[in-house]
Amino acid sequence: MTANILDGHMHARILIDSIADELDQLPRVPGLAVVLVGDDPASQIYVQSKIRMAERLGLRGEVEFLSHDASEADLLGVIDALNARDDIDGILVQLPLPAHIDTLRIMAAVDPCKDVDGLHALNAGRLFHGDDALVPCTPLGCLRLIKSIRTDLTGCHAVVIGSSNVVGKPMAALLLKEHATVTQTHVHTRGISDICRQADILVSAVGKAGLVRGDWIKPQAIVIDVGTTRVEKPEGGYEVRGDVTFDEAVRVASAITPVPRGVGPMTIACLMENTVKAAKARSARLQ
Amino acid sequence: MTANILDGHMHARILIDSIADELDQLPRVPGLAVVLVGDDPASQIYVQSKIRMAERLGLRGEVEFLSHDASEADLLGVIDALNARDDIDGILVQLPLPAHIDTLRIMAAVDPCKDVDGLHALNAGRLFHGDDALVPCTPLGCLRLIKSIRTDLTGCHAVVIGSSNVVGKPMAALLLKEHATVTQTHVHTRGISDICRQADILVSAVGKAGLVRGDWIKPQAIVIDVGTTRVEKPEGGYEVRGDVTFDEAVRVASAITPVPRGVGPMTIACLMENTVKAAKARSARLQ
């Protein structure tokens, strides 16, 4: 028996369709602004795919380009202008930023009501408290995939590998909010395979290809693989690999996300969901 | 062999002495305001002990009393006035509030820079992100007690029983910040004794007398008991008991807090620490 393979593209399409239905009920077209500093090719691809998805869905998408040597003050000026604009509901600053810019200060400058990346401390605190918040898109997408298999997570033991502010920590907070028992692990964790073997739900978000082996997985667990590592292929060229050794894990888990085509498409779909959520909340307040 | 018994009064005195030294370096006397709504006898005792400690330390302490039928608007008015006052560095709204007042809205109204209880979402988010923040006093006190025994928590497995916003969640966040592997459990957790037996550090904060038995504890673990439950004594009268069955645990743990005289005194000392921290930060900004 092999695991149910969670098709991220299919689940993203389902989510996008439900967002399209909600759009019809809004008084105006929501606007998403993505801010890109510098010309990192990977970042450019991410930004393009976000804007393309927004436009396909019928949102207004725009990109603010700043050169790689833009100052922190330049970037803060752009954010202030976007904060003030009525037609912009979501602001996303593409990370990573150049080293001379203080990422924390930038995140704190985005209006929390437009913070569709969920990285403002106020949104993080609301999530932490179990209140309504704009939540980072990747863990939001992971939770949707998990709940497509198991709607009630009460009392499940979830193990999250990785404790970044963007994925690991908000993932743990979301699972806790669903009444799962949650263990957060990271690079300093000892005996990680024994800990993972207790997991009814295992989420790995570290970016270390093949870290999680088949014998780390509890039979019938749900396994979500957030890792993406570019690995050189023997025959030349590269492939993207996840944190989980898929061929082994697929024989033990009840459900598993592939890499690619697993979590990735859900992240962009959840960005659209957050933008519409922000637009709805702003419309309700302005009425 | 029995455990080292962590004397909360002694550790609180050490902390208070170090705060007194810091006070000498401040340009003015920090002010702490406690807001009490209604006449709950337990709350009155807590408030008095906080103010008494503040004054003994040489802070300015004051209490704003509101009657039990004060409106939310009345309370918000008091908080706004305290937010605006230059001589007030710390504002603490004694919980619980009467049912007709929205506690979340009240917490959100306190200036985050004066939020010495660490309950504003902005402070919670900063803690969650691992940044500098005003942190709730009880978990702060627990961490000090733990670190009095073991200064480096890197790679320890910590289990926190209870996931309240005031104790359980910030406790887990503080332990994670110290690079411990952290499992957060709660009322829905299954197989809790097996989970607790993995803990190098076990913190219980549920308020269920005697919940944690000796055989839940890993030999040589550090055990911190935040619970306080009033239990009727067979001979009449009441006693306060912790979550941990002390007589059993003391034979297994390497260190354990008693109830009373364990975590309690540390909570008040950490409130003083937070007030001075807030005063220092405000002085630095105003300079």
TrEMBL record, chains A, B:
PANTHER family: C-1-TETRAHYDROFOLATE SYNTHASE, CYTOPLASMIC (PTHR48099:SF5), C-1-TETRAHYDROFOLATE SYNTHASE, CYTOPLASMIC-RELATED (PTHR48099)
One Pfam match: THF_DHG_CYH
Pathway: One-carbon metabolism; tetrahydrofolate interconversion
HAMAP family the UniProt entry points to: THF_DHG_CYH
CDD domains on file: NAD_bind_m-THF_DH_Cyclohyd (cd01080)
Annotated family: Belongs to the tetrahydrofolate dehydrogenase/cyclohydrolase family.
Domain Tetrahydrofolate dehydrogenase/cyclohydrolase NAD(P)-binding, first and last residues per copy: 136-282
Subunit architecture: Homodimer.
Function: Catalyzes the oxidation of 5,10-methylenetetrahydrofolate to 5,10-methenyltetrahydrofolate and then the hydrolysis of 5,10-methenyltetrahydrofolate to 10-formyltetrahydrofolate.
Alphabetical list of InterPro entries matching this protein: Aminoacid_DH-like_N_sf, NAD(P)-bd_dom_sf, THF_DH/CycHdrlase, THF_DH/CycHdrlase_cat_dom, THF_DH/CycHdrlase_NAD-bd_dom
GO terms under biological process: L-histidine biosynthetic process; methionine biosynthetic process; purine nucleotide biosynthetic process; tetrahydrofolate interconversion
Name of the protein described by the UniProt record: Bifunctional protein FolD
Catalysed reactions listed for this entry: (6R)-5,10-methylene-5,6,7,8-tetrahydrofolate + NADP(+) = (6R)-5,10-methenyltetrahydrofolate + NADPH; (6R)-5,10-methenyltetrahydrofolate + H2O = (6R)-10-formyltetrahydrofolate + H(+)
Keywords: Amino-acid biosynthesis, Histidine biosynthesis, Hydrolase, Methionine biosynthesis, Multifunctional enzyme, NADP, One-carbon metabolism, Oxidoreductase, Purine biosynthesis
